Amino acid sequence: MANIRVVATEPFEGQKPGTSGLRKRVTVFQQPRYLENFVQSVFDSLEGFAGATLVVGGDGRFHNREAVQTILKMAAANGFGRILVGRGGLLSTPAASCVIRGRRAYGGIILSASHNPGGPEGDFGIKYNIGNGGPAPERVTDAVFARTQSIREYRTLDAPDLDLERLGTQRFGGAEVEVIDPVADYRDLMARLFDFAAIRAAFAGGLRLRYDAMHAVTGPYAKAIVEDELGAPAGTVVNGTPLPDFGGHHPDPNLVHAKALFDEMMGPDAPDLGAASDGDGDRNLIIGRGVFVTPSDSLAILAANMHLAPGYRGGPKGIARSMPTSRAADQVAERLGVPCYETPTGWKFFGTLLDAGLATICGEESAGTGSDHVREKDGLWAVLLWLNILAARRQPVLGIVREHWRAHGRNHYARHDYEEVDAEAANGLMSALRGQLGALPGRRFGVHEVTTADDFAYTDPVDGSVSERQGVRIGFADGSRVVYRLSGTGTAGATLRVYIERFEPDPDRQGEDTQTALAGLAAVADELAGIRARTGRAEPDVVT
Ligand code: G6P
Ligand code: ZN
Fold first, then answer.
1. What is the CATH number of the domain that holds 361?
2. 133, pLDDT greater than 60
3. What pLDDT sits at residue 137?
């Protein structure tokens, strides 16, 4: 067909998708043919999409626009019939999932490096999502990786760049491209799930929210929904304009990078709820007045209260959490008499459970929470569910959290990250741990006696696929737990994550400071794995 150009290429090393797609420095993606090779490898691994619809969008970070243009041309040249792209090339990750599902697309390409810094020296990323709106499962990403190693040519369209600002449909080679409002479909979905009238009334009655969009993609979504639709006062959303370098900040909604929000929430004039989202809008940070709610606790509290939102009246059918996430959600599932699934780290593992209707809500310690409304975690959705619960219960966040602990027990929880560790040292630490698993049960470390030790392996209950070596779990006699794994999302060296958890059933002791409550166990975690000795690190870089 006219305008289609077949370009010769050669494989690049290392185009292996990690926990969430292919993530590399911007400079790596700027190499000629690098992005093209990966995109063509994705298309070459798919079947039966001739004439079908593809969704394309990203978090607006540096290189987003250029990459979107490249992908539009390649998608048209490879035979997609219709391509939906967010205005300006923008789509948050959950909104992309919503559009793929709502418009029955074949799949979608999302451009993001999530919470990693942006800008010319920052990171960029790309991932493919399948027709259910969720990240491609491993058999697809494995096929894509295999293809990147043998690719010889890619197909593209010889055409000028498309006008990404003009809403509506334009002809593009043999395809049609529709530039869509990135917010509209998503806003409609949220309006169906939540009691917007009750939240609107709560705002009118003085409920105060501070939403930090971190100059990332959720700014336009939060302004349209929280300020325009729900009537929160202008200025509720701060850092609401997406910037290619996120204003020089690190769009990771944690206590380090959202410190200004944290300080405001601990201050004398704190609003009722403080929230933030990451680069591509799938993560969330929840802080009540005077209380940080850990992602693990937030999952449990949302699961226990979600029946208060119209979209979830019957409560959850099941709850799913990633293995390192605290077991607070398990206690809720037990009370509700529904199953709780433990999956490997990575949102893609929730997809089959959600599709099969086994789980309604899922979450991860890494600040991801979501439900069966889309197939990605969803930062703004979590904030809206919290708002719905606050509007219904008319209680401060702190009161809700304390009541929850009293009823279910508290899981003191912290994650210690050792970043950019020498990869060999990190792998050595993990294999030494794996080597001693059999010998650990029965061993004592001070007052802590090891009762179980294994390397987490998961068999998907729906499709039977098996994922091995997903992290070392050490269980202690008092129900405490330490988990070790290497991050699958870093772009430099290795990141060792150590997850430490202790259950506290006694309401009188639930108010104890988390770091104090976990100090003994943290020392055991170090001793057991030889963290200091093997990595040379005396302290974790980040504690969350
Ligand atoms: C991404 C994934 C999550 C995962 C998180 C941390 O956000 O979508 O599913 O929990 O990264 O992964 P990591 O491998 O770095 O611990
Ligand atoms: Zn993200």
1. 3.40.120.10
2. yes
3. 87
